[in-house]
Amino acid sequence: METQRKVAVVTGGSSGIGRAAALGFAAVGYDVAICGRRADALQQVANETGGHWGECDVTDPAEVAQFFSGVKERYGRIDLVFNNAGRFAPAVSFGDLDVVTWREMVDTNLNGAFYVAREAFRAMRDQSPQGGRIINNGSISAYVPRPGAASYTATKHAITGLTKAISLDGRAFSIACGQIDIGNAATDMTSSMNSGSLQANGTMMPEPTFDVKHVVDALLYMAGLPLEANVQFMTVMATNMPYIGRG
Q1: pLDDT value of residue 142
Q2: Domain 7-245 is of which CATH architecture?
Q3: Is residue 142 within 8 Å of residue 160, measured between CB atoms?
């Protein structure tokens, strides 16, 4: 009897780390479902993975629920969710941080992550065999801030609490939850670091990056563990980035 392929969901799967992760999971035999807000880019990635895709704004809980319903309808179950969708905001001193920007960042990076994780948790709890794995995309900013990044930093610190809460509540249902914290993976979002990033001492300095394939390798390791084992937190970073010296 043929073994059923495992099913992985990647949010924010149209570009950057999400795209790389979707292609990586597909390459090792997962059925992959991706979502995001750009249909054309999603379609391109889905053409490469051969999997399911859907437009979905993670700030809308109804859209998130509809997307997960579509994945379950197509594949019957969900084994892995990479809770990746998120956004940056322009650097601004805390006193000048606009309330609209704050709310938009919280709505995407925290509320969106909650909506996705909740649908994943429900699916994994209710399916048979029961269980699955949720991997939240944290950040180096889940530990230390960059200058002028209060809204991003606050949401990523919150992801750490969300990860721990899901990990605890998931025990009864064979749901493992971990967090990957990535520092300066080379994507379109980090390309500006080559020309310089604001440092804690007020200077601008180029920061090293590393190949995103190493993030994918880390995700595949986390995903490949049996459900009785879990990587609670993993940091993957450019060796010489200034993280260790921040603060």
Answers
A1: 95
A2: 3-Layer(aba) Sandwich (3.40)
A3: yes
